[in-house]
Write a structure and sequence with these properties.
The structure holds two protein chains of two kinds.
Chain A (H helix, E strand, L loop, with lengths): L1 H36 L5 H6 L5 H11 L5 H13 L7 H5 L7 H35 L5 H15 L2 H15 L19 H31 L2 H8 L4 H12 L1 H25 L5 H10 L3 H29 L1 H7 L1
Helix pairs in contact in A: 1-14, 6-7, 6-9, 6-12, 6-13, 7-9, 8-9, 8-12, 9-12, 10-11, 12-13, 12-14, 13-14, 14-15
Chain B lengths: L9 H23 L30 H7 L2 H28 L2 H14 L3 H12 L3 H27 L3 H8 L4 H37 L11 H8 L8 H27 L10
Helix pairs in contact in B: 1-2, 1-10, 3-4, 3-6, 3-8, 4-6, 5-6, 6-8, 7-8, 8-9, 8-10, 9-10
The chains are: A mainly alpha, B mainly alpha.
Chain lengths: 331, 276
């Protein structure tokens, strides 16, 4: 009986959040398409640039289907996206290729990005919990002040400043780590672990500061709860009170913190990849923006938006599963 | 002077001090530049010398002079974007929070959709469509900032409009415009000021990020972020050309964050939750 109620609540939650996510993504697809195609000037002349002879323009326009109306181009693109066809890169076509599938161009970069983000998250979660709990159990003392000030400094720094400073120290001064992480096509970034150190450190510096502050705040609140006070009065050791009762109460906000951190990484990874010339999705996206390959930008932006929203829903689901009392509130 | 109490906390004092210093360098710097920021004065990528105290950059221009010129752009562009975002977000938030009807729901759903995207992604998509130019950069940063501000202003307005003195003004029969201007805006200004420091930091991070990606300001402009980007490949020749602009951007954003943090603490609000 109980489990049936529980399952319905969670399923209903998933269905509702899933539908809301689909609606958000539809609106997003319209916005992405409109922002990139409604403005004057067309994709073909933008990517061809100086090579825009009338014949070349006509050919690229035809290959991209630019002669159709705006709504039908939108439906074409969205239909392709939903069925897994991301379309052709306009820059590839402009360079004279007969077809230049975007998917082939970005499937390897996507794997590389996932590897870099995965390493960062694997370090981020335990480190921010330890640092956040450490500061929260010593509120107002030196450790807490040090953690709060250092994280406020790190949070304020742009990734490219941190990345450049790290390169200055570890490459120019100490000469122990490479300044770039060039992953050649067909190569696995994990084969050159030394190259991944500085990009991962750069990403970690900004995200760790942020998550540590939020874990600390959640933990301070949890440690002040009656629940924790009760555990203390029961005579449990302080270690057990903190990790077992305190952290468990701080779990829901903490999971949300990490979901936000993953979402933040989506942005941070773009800059970090450019800083270290790392062959990932973020660098592909920036390259496409620079040459104004609108079709590639649309499809990549849409992919990132999907990932962003799926992460959000999964995090909320995890919170609902972890914290039973939210289950009723959610439905 | 109660409003300036935050300056007496250590964080607030350090933040304001750093900020004042950076503002001085950025605004008055060009007056003291020994060389032109865009003309070559010698061999590219040389280290510090008597003529060029921080050496020359990858095109042989004086790094020190470019630094003195290079702070205006990021401050000006970020300031402008933040002002536009506050105007747009303020109006939408006030209307939604005060109207509390269908409009509120519609506006806030729209805001939710915009908030569902990574800021840098919004920036890149807009630039891909509209090309790189300064108006595009400023408008797209404002677009990224606007939903968060609208949501904050809405919740503050909602809270304020339930207060006794606002209800009294409604009963006195004052016009909506007068109520918003005389009663609501003054009462939400305090909490908004705590938000301002963080918003400005975020605008600077975005503008500097775009300049770094060479999607904002274009060469030969002197700009701290652009300087880092263009001299990175010549790090070993003259590391100062990267290290000093990086330190200046860092000081600027740290100064702003510390100041914003001190104001937020004074007002008893949770701190950096809204950032990024």
């Amino acid at each position: 009986m109980m489990s049936a109620v529980k399952r319905t609540g969670t399923t209903a939650f998933l269905v509702r959040r899933g539908l809301a996510g689909v609606v958000t993504l539809l609106v997003a697809s319209v916005l992405i398409f409109a922002a990139t195609e409604i403005l004057p000037g067309d994709i073909a002349s933008a990517v061809l640039g100086r090579n825009a002879t009338p014949e070349a323009l006509a050919e690229v326009r035809a290959q991209l289907g630019l002669d159709a109306s705006l709504p039908s181009r939108y439906l074409d693109w969205l239909g392709g996206f939903v069925t897994g066809d991301l379309g052709d890169s306009a820059a590839g076509l402009a360079a004279g290729a007969d077809s230049a599938p975007i998917w082939e161009q970005i499937s390897e970069p996507i794997r590389n990005t996932l590897i870099l983000a995965g390493i960062t998250i694997a370090l981020l979660v335990p480190l921010s919990i330890v640092l956040g709990v450490l500061a929260a159990t010593r509120v107002g003392r030196t450790v807490d002040h040090a953690v709060s000030t250092l994280t406020l400094v790190a949070i304020s720094l742009p990734e490219f400043v941190i990345g450049s400073l790290l390169v200055l120290v570890f490459f120019v001064q100490l000469d122990v780590l490479p300044p770039v992480a060039l992953v050649r096509p067909g190569e696995n970034p994990l084969a050159q672990p030394r190259e991944l150190v500085l990009p991962a450190l750069t990403l970690l510096a900004t995200s760790l500061a942020w998550t540590t502050r939020l874990v600390r705040a959640a933990m301070v609140e949890a440690l002040a709860s009656e629940h924790v006070e009760q555990a203390r009065l029961n005579g449990f050791s302080e270690r057990r009170v903190v990790w077992r009762y305190g952290l468990r109460n701080a779990l829901a906000p903490t999971v949300q913190v990490f979901a936000q951190a993953v979402q933040y990484l989506v942005g941070g990874v773009i800059l970090t990849e450019v800083i270290f010339s790392y062959n990932g999705l973020g660098k592909e996206l920036v390259d496409a923006v620079v040459v104004r390959d609108v079709r590639a930008v649309q499809s990549m932006a849409m992919l990132i938006a999907v990932a962003y929203i799926v992460i959000n829903i999964l995090a909320d689901l995890l919170v609902v599963l972890l914290v039973p009392r939210l289950r009723t509130a959610a439905s | 002077m109660r409003a300036l109490r935050f300056a007496r906390t250590p964080t607030g004092a350090i933040g304001l001090g750093i900020l004042a210093l950076i503002l001085l360098v950025a605004l008055a710097g060009p007056l003291f530049a020994p060389h032109s920021p865009t003309k070559s004065i010698g061999i590219p990528g040389t280290g510090p010398s008597a003529d060029a105290v921080l050496g020359t950059d990858f095109l042989g221009r004086d790094v020190f002079s470019r630094l003195l010129w290079g702070g205006r752009s990021v401050l000006g562009l970020a300031g402008l974007a933040t002002v536009i975002a506050y105007l747009a977000g303020g109006i939408v938030g006030l209307v939604a929070g005060y109207a509390r009807n269908v409009l509120d729901g519609l506006l806030m759903r729209f805001v939710d959709v915009l908030l569902a995207f990574p800021p840098l992604l919004v920036l890149l998509v807009v630039i891909a469509g509209a090309g790189t130019s300064l108006p595009v950069l400023v408008v797209s940063v404002a677009l990224v900032q606007f939903p968060g501000i609208a949501r904050l202003v809405r919740s503050l307005t909602l809270e304020a409009s339930g207060r006794g003195y606002v209800e009294a003004a409604v009963i006195r029969g004052e016009s909506t415009a007068a109520i918003l201007r005389r009663e609501i805006i003054p009462s939400i200004a305090g909490p908004l000021s705590a938000d301002l420091g963080l918003r400005m930091t975020f605008s600077i991070l975005l503008i500097a990020g775009a300049n770094f990606l060479s999607l904002g300001l274009q060469p030969p402009a002197a700009d701290w972020a652009l300087m880092i980007a263009e001299n990175r490949d010549f790090l070993e020749l003259n590391p100062w050309a990267v290290a000093v602009p990086a330190a200046l951007i860092a000081a600027l954003t740290i100064g702003l964050s510390f100041t914003g943090d001190a104001i937020a603490r004074m007002l008893g609000r949770s701190d950096v939750k809204g950032l990024r």
